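seq/struct pair 1
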Amino acid sequence: MIPGVSRAGATIVSAMLLGADRRSPAEFSFRLAMPTMVGAFAYEAFKDRAELAHANIMLIVVGFACSFIFGWIVVKTFLGYVQRHTFALFAWWRILFGAIGLAAIYFI
């Protein structure tokens, strides 16, 4: 793992280097995350199944619904942004925080 390199960023940059437009790899990157998140949720639910009470099920349903709705809004907003703008701001953001991460590792 390299500080400043994200799964989404690596996927998007790789696809663009191979000639893809900006929106397609961004969309693919988000879709690629879905099975991982479902698997992580299923694993955690299975691991903590003894602690799940009937009363907690409603909290899980509400949490899932809220996460789904706001996740959908964020993805749609980001994909709209990607169609109109480049990834330069995202790239500089990742470079800045990667440098901060490397400095923290070096100095701490």
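seq/struct pair 2
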Amino acid sequence: MIALLQVYVLFALYLIVFVMCVFALVDAARRPPRAFVDAGKRTRGLWLALLGGASAVAFVALPWPLGLGGASMFFVLLCAVAGGLYLADVRPAVAQYSGGGRGGRGGRGPQGPRGGW
């Protein structure tokens, strides 16, 4: 009973890491390359390579029905760090320079959609 619960918890954690890495990869691909340089967060190509590799390793780590089940917990932890670092540090900084989308200005001024009082 406990062993089956552990398997389900581990599967859920691996799946969460995989979804987080894919979300970060798609978000990085949608941002303009210049925004990364302007924000001082390396280049978009570096982040795409890093997040692409993390997504691939996280997929390989998923148990057999979805993935291959062939990566250790250490590699999954590295994938979680890469995806989390992008989402917590790079994405908010790049969103300021992207224009549009969540986190960006999107045509709104600092006072909101209707301006100040």
